[in-house]
Amino acid sequence: MTTPVNPLSLMAASPSMSQTKSTKEGGGTWFEAMARAWGEALDNQAATIQQNSDAISNGGADTPQAITELTAQSLKMGFLSTSSHTSISTVGEALKTMAQKQ
User: Fold this and answer.
1) Is residue 12 scored above 80 in pLDDT?
2) What is the pLDDT of residue 20?
């Protein structure tokens, strides 16, 4: 007797159609692609913060406007970090629940 397989769990664990075989080139599951996208967004935001910080500390642009911009970018980083953690954790728990129901 065979156990039926939930089609959603197969989709969650399967590679997306537009991805290649190499993980560095975008391969893997959609869950991994989501995590990579969050990582790229966080890296980009960190680079923006670094540029603003360098302009203040090395470029002498220590005006209230520049400091306020750096503060805003830092708060955005905190928001992105919290959002990425929440989304990855939530999707991971959902995948775990699906796997347990098979």
Assistant:
1) no
2) 45
